[in-house]
Amino acid sequence: MARSTECSLLFRILYNDVATEAQFSTDGARQFSTDVDAIVAVFRPYTPRPGSHFRELREACTLLLLDEESLAEVEDLLLDATEGKTSSVEEARAKLNALGVLNLSIEQAESVLAQRV
Q: Cα angle at 67 between 41 and 35, to 5 degrees?
């Protein structure tokens, strides 16, 4: 149980203080994703399914690793969605789901993508 608590605490720190606050270049995003994978691997012997504690963080990495074309497309959809265009909300959610981003809200996804430089 303690390991689960530690996973949750580490997730909150990495997501709230890094994924949504730090600026990421393409190389920086790639390194951050590698680091997240390594952290999940560290917890593997101590907690069943450690990746489940880091879902949102892994989804943030997915967004940070988008190529320029996909990034522009997703950002446009998210912008339209946050402006309240109903069909755009559905399109944005469908696009995020297609990318494997199932847990982050549209607002969270937009916050993560704002960190790309």
A: 20
Is 19 within 8 Å of 64 (Cβ atoms)? Answer: yes
Q: What are the backbone dihedrals phi and psi of residue 48, each rounded to the nearest 5 degrees, phi first?
A: -70, 135
pLDDT for residue 109: 96
Instruction: For residue 98, give the amino acid letter.
Output: A
When comparing pLDDT for 51 and 62, which is higher?
A: 62
| Residue 43: CB atoms within 10 Å | 19
Query: Is the sign of the CA dihedral 105, 95, 24, 55 positive or negative?
Result: positive
For residue 38, what pLDDT is reported? 93
Residues written for the chain: 117
Give the residues across from 24 on adjacent strands. Answer: 116
Angle between helices 106-113 and 68-82 (to 10 degrees): 130
Q: Tens digits of per-residue pLDDT, 64-78?
A: 999 999 999 999 999
Distance CA 38, CA 34 (A): 6
